[in-house]
Every structure is written in structure tokens, then in C-alpha cells.
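[SOLVED] Predicted holo structure with fe (ii) ion

Edit: marking solved, answer below. Original request kept for reference. I posted the sequence and ligand SMILES and asked for the 3D complex as C-alpha cells.
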Amino acid sequence: MVIDMHAHILPKTDHGSDSMECSIQQCKKAAAAGVETIVATPHFYMDIDIIDYFLMRREEAYINLTKTVKYPKILKAAEVTLFPGIEKLDRLDELCIEGTDYILLEMPNTTGDDWVYQSIFEIKGKRGLRPIIAHIDRCSKEKAKRLLEMDVLIQVNAAAFTSFKKSYYVMKLFKKNKVHVLGSDAHGFADEYLDFHQAQKKLGSLADTVMSNAERIIHNEFIKK
Ligand SMILES: [Fe+2]
């Protein structure tokens, strides 16, 4: 099964899609790239949003989109940017990929702050959730090194395969099972799905493992690091 683990395709839920037309286009491009399931991950920024409103907005967008789009299958989730105190947020578990304990976490733009790693640790230990770190290919070397040492799952953006240097770097990580899943991180009219298709080709036989990891995640099964 081909699963896109990270995409901004729910209409008017974040800056990923400003209309139903855009979302429908995005889903068509995903289907053309062979995607069977899209994990929809609108941004959640704790400093400018209220979780109750976010969940309502996401639900409404999901209902509206799935009235029209029957394929690919869409799962509700979020891309949760880390902010100080987020590990204590009420209803945080509702930002997980639906039906699972897996939560996609985005690193903040700050550099080298210890609270970030403590927060991930507590989301895992105290809240009992299973973090997936979003697009490690966009993190600084220093952040990536610390994240790779943690007991968390890691997502890579398909766009990383468009750069020779990054492609080499992420392939090495996929081969060592240090990173686990692939996402389009589609925004706007979703040209990212061309990258997604190419990335799977470049992964070759590893693509099966990557997609099998994604399938296990959406069924809330454990993945050994
Ligand atoms: Fe994203």
C-alpha cells in the first residue's frame, strides 16, 4: 500500500489548501502518483491556535472533502509544531493520526534548545504517545544528530531526493533504518507528488519497507527502530 504520511490537503485548515478546488486537485495528483492513503497533517501551532477550534475546523474540512474525494483514502492527523509546554496540552492525543497513538511533531525554528528534546521525551513518556519527527531532512545537522539518537520514528520529505547531497544523506539513513517513513508535505497545487513518485523509485526495494512501516503506523502497530 502506498501511503503519504505528511500532506497539507484539507481545505482551509492551514495554508496548504485555500479552497475545495485546490484540495481536489491535490488528491487527484496524489492518486496519479499512486498514493492510496493520505495522512492529512494540517499545521497546529499552539501559540496562535486553540485546539478546540482547530479540531472543529479540521473535522468540517474532512467531512466536506471526503464527500467529493473517495480516493485516495484520507486519514485525519496534524503536524504539531513543538512549543514550550505542549506536552501538557489538553486534547493533544486528538492530534494523533486517527485511530493511533502516533503523532507527527515538527521542530521549531529555534536552535539547540534543550526543552525541545525534553518535550518530545515527555510526549512519549508522560502522555504515552508515539512521536514521529517531521522532515528530518529540513533540520540542521546538530538537531538531526540529536533526534536520530532518540527513540522516536522519523519522517523524510520526498523533496529531499531532488538534491544530490540530501538524497545521499537520507538514502544512507533509510538503509540503516534510522528513518522510517516518507511524506510529500504537499502544499498548494501539490507538485510535491512528482517528487513523491520519484522518491519511491529512488528508494528501490527499500520503498517496500518504508510503505510497510507506514501501514503499520496507521494500524497503530509497533515499529522496531
Ligand atoms: Fe508540513
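OP edit: The chain has one domain: 3-218. Thanks to everyone who chimed in.
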